[in-house]
Amino acid sequence: MLVKNIVITGATSGIGQETAQQLLDQGHSIFFLARNKAKAEQTAATLKRTSGNESVDYVIADLASLATVREAVKEILKKWNRIDVLINNAGGIISERKESADGLELQFSMNHLGHFALTQGLLQVLKHSKARIINVSSEAHRAGNLNLEDLQLTSGYTAFKAYANAKLCNILFTRELARRYGSEGITSYALHPGIVNSSFASPLKGFFKVVFQVIKPIMISSAKGAETSVYLATEPGVEEQSGSYFKKKKAAQPAAGALDDALALKLWEASEALLAAHK
After folding, report:
1. Over pLDDT 70: what percentage of the chain?
2. Residue ranges in 80-198 assigned as alpha helix (H)
3. Which helix (H) or strand (E) element contains residue 241?
4. Distance between CA 224 and CA 219 in Å, rounded?
5. What pTM was estimated for this model as a whole?
6. Active site residues
7. pLDDT band at 88 (very low <50, low <70, confident <90, very high)
């Protein structure tokens, strides 16, 4: 088996930690990004102990802070000159509109733009490695409706609207990656992990918190939720499905808006402009 070098975000809890665990169990090497140093150290120690695999490293970064993402890229590239898989897993939902350190709407920033910046920063190595890029999206994308004139949702904000838009961005980003870099060996995939019983929805209040409590009995475990990410990171032969959206380890049909390649291009260009404006 070829041991893969895998970079992953959001590995200190939930689906991300289970994804890292399963990949380490298979013998692969993991480099994860985390916001909190104490939690990162604890996670690294736990992963090493439970997998028996010492190939775990981490760097401190906040995906909602583009400056820390840039620094994380530098640290990763100091240690690795080959990255076989990038798993953009981290994400979250918050009840009230807040802005990131860069003055951007927080859900857009941490669910999409931070991962866009990370991918861009690692791009040359990803191309050289003919890497797989995996973006964890959600069925919530079906409620997304991007307004390119107001990506920051300065008006009409709701927690679910912002989250749905960000998850739609994940799929559009996946498609544009495949279009731009498929000829250079990069493949990209988006996925819905399932409705996972984790701390993900703990920041929610009111109606959506009630909804999550009601559906809790049918939620799946984090280990189950990690399966599609692990599949896309390791399964031979999925390259021909680059640009696709997956559920339960199979390609699935996303919402019509997620197939809008003109919108994908415009989102890419808007994201590049935001990175340029916050150097």
Report:
1. 91
2. 106-108, 114-121, 123-129, 159-181
3. none
4. 10
5. 0.93
6. 163
7. very high
